[in-house]
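Help! Submission page says 'invalid entity' but I think these are all valid:
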Amino acid sequence: MTKKLNLKLLALLFALFAFTACDDDDDIIPEEENEEEVITTVKLTFTDESDVETVFTWADPENDGSPVIDDITLESGKTYELSVQLLNETESPAEDITEEVEEEGVDHQFFFSGTAIDDLITISYNDSDEDGNPVGLDNNVTILATGGPSVLTVILRHQPDKSATGVSDGEIDNAGGETDVSVDFNITVQ
Amino acid sequence: MIKYIQLTCLMLLSGYLLAQSQQENYNIKGHIFDEGDHLLPGATVFIPELEEGVVSDIDGNFEFKNIEPGEYIIVVRYLGFEPTERKIHVPSYDPVDIHLHGEFHMLNEVSVEEEKVTTGLQTVEAVSKDELQKKSGGSLAESVSNITGVTMLQTGPAIAKPVIHGLHSNRVLIMNNGVRQEGQQWGTEHAPEIDPFTAQTLKVIKGAAAVRYGSDAVAGVLLVEPPELPTSKGLTGDVNLVGTSNGRQGIASVMLANGSEKIKGLGWRLQSSAKKAGDFHAPNYMLTNTGLHELNFSGEVGINREKWGGSVFYSLFSTETGILKSAHIGNATDLQEAIGRDEPFYIEDFSYDINNPKQDVAHQLAKVKGYYNFNDNSKLSLQVSQQVNSRKEYDIRRGDRDDKPALDLKLETLSGELVLEQIHTDRLKGTYGISYMDQKNRNIPGTGVRPLVPNYLSTSIGAFAIESYGVNKWEFELGARYDYRRLEVYKLDDDDVLITPSYNFNNASVTGSVEYLINDNMQLTSNLATAFRPPSVSELYSEGLHHGVGAIEEGNPDLDSEKSFKWVNTFDYNKNPFAFSTSIYYQRIQDFIYLEPQSEFKTLSRGTFPVFAYKQTDARLMGLDAQFKYQISQSFAYQAKYSMVRARDISNDRYLINMPADRVENGLTFNQDLLGKLTDIFIDLNTVYVAEQTRVPGIDYTTPPDAYFLTNIQAGFSYKILNLDTDFSLSVNNAFNTAYRDYLNRFRYYADDMGRNFILRLHVNF
């Protein structure tokens, strides 16, 4: 082979690669990605004996760390049922995450903690998953005393160990798992 | 100059060797030529198996005397030429004639290679295949971490990145087969996508070698070099089988190579490896979901002739790696809980299953290269390569989203390099080059998660020139380089409106080195070099939650390039029976990019998160690596290694986070050439002490783990099966099953490191 031919071959190889490189870059424009698993809103519905519902929400609809939080007020002398609802408001209409939690009840459990627990109120589970363990979407609230404001923390754990000591009674210490929700409310009992 | 040292070393080594055999032995004779058929005096010719070396005389002749019959690999090295291997038969009645091809490697960068423990302590080039073989089956980072001053940054047992002199990720440039490795290197949990079985040698350049290799070579460069293609007929091959008790891991690797009789200089090589591991375990519990699957392939075909040559190379690396399930946390409270636990939360029975969280990574490289020698003194080479890196990360998710990656990135890189090597005079040589790189990074839609890093296009152009000059006992090198990079970011802002910020980075770098041969036993090398690194797109624009540490990391669009200045001084001493080598370095990095904890916290529905923002500061790193070897007797050798690094954030007057702790290794090796039908018998006893890292900035989630001490033992021998040399070895790593955590393992918060591990290796070479 002659020298010239060799150089031509090199040039050809280079041109071939340069050509394949020049594909169009239209796909560089990113597509909108809907945040599918975000929980922006925690809705607590307290229902008293006379079926009167009061709703308090923790809402960060933009999911940017600027939540608007309702202060919870309960009345002493009453008992309440507490149901928890989770929403993703980055989507329109808002997606109800509660259903997913319910479907995967064995993998989820709510815990209620904060200074209000055992001081102003106690919360006990009123539902169960397929294995008979609590999930915490429906609960009973007992008023212990008037006072406040105190803090009520609502925590949702993903894949906790529900059979660990105390977990099915609502004690979080041995639950493990991964925190999906952890929000604080101020609560006052009048 | 290196060759004198080598000559000294080789002569010393050959002194250890006394022929033990009673049978009739033979002499091997041959000649060394350059590409133009000129005889080369002063080339070192080495038989690794025998640890015997000679130097070609003034007429290019060499001769080994009194060699036992058999098959040997001989290795020829000569300054400025590529090391060349040849298989020979003894007795042989034809002279062994070997042609060397020009290489023009950078003399003065401080290059320390892996070496066979028994061949002494050269910091100059040595045969490293043996040591790779001895430790085969590990990750790339594990394979290079034997080099003093090189450590690992781990994310559990299966993911490891090399750390050179305290720096890693985007600050360590990896040259895989002559091509800049372009993966998602910004992530500390993203291991290099390279199969160590493709490598013949692994080299680490500890200086800031930006002039030759371009951006990112701030800490140094890791060179992964495959074997040369054969140029003559004769099937050669390599089979490795490795089994480990920890993780119940099986590894297999096969390599085949051959040349052609009909077409001069034509050769090919095919290689493939596979790995399968289940859950690894710590001394006291399983590390649930830490298994991995890996499948790799590479092939090359090419022609190498004196006047011209070229080759086509392709490689595929693919891995699926589990992430310790207990390390998947929701927020900082979960992390605090994990730190407080004695054992990880999820401990299940051993399984080969890999569940979420996991990584699924594939990396392809295609390369075409060619060279042309205009005459004896100038060589032009061109290389063009394409890389496609795909990274999918799967999270534990709600609903039916487990099969949907939470991160899905595709990075395509086209690069090219044109290099002219020119010998001006016997003493003055030059290397000149231009390089080009075009890159596209895309988030594949459909993850249901806002992208952690945005899409981008990037184009880089660079030009460099290096001159080296050698006279008597001195060797000098000077180099300069200029780089331009354009970065165009395509990102949706918080309101899903497209923004397209763009950046232009201009950087100049220079290097200067001097090497002085004090006498036949001592050598001094000093290298001063600057390097730079434009900020990565993750540092500019990352946003969101880092699940591993329950923190929010915020990019900083105003970052500028890091600029580094590194001074490395190396002293080598080699005189029977002692060998000593030490490197002392000083590095200043202006605009060092790091994560600074912010005073405000962010309240999301998942909890309250600490916020870290990318900032720039001035950093200073100083350190020392030292190795010592003492050949106690013909059979026993002692070896010690020490490395330390001190790193300060000067602007904030505190230590830098995540720096390797001081490390001491001691080793005792027993060698016996022959025992009955067994050959190359060895027993290695090795201890590693890693101190507690006390020099920390105090911005971590917990204090660094305690110091630890590990003992590793390996024993092996060679045995002929069906006339094939077969090496067997058995190792026990962490022999006393010590429970420990390492400061540079990101999972130190969650679990202990790996417990005792028995490793059985079998290697056949033909």
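Support: the input was valid. A stray whitespace character was the problem, and the output above is from the cleaned input. Chain A touches chain B through 52 residues (CB under 8 Å).
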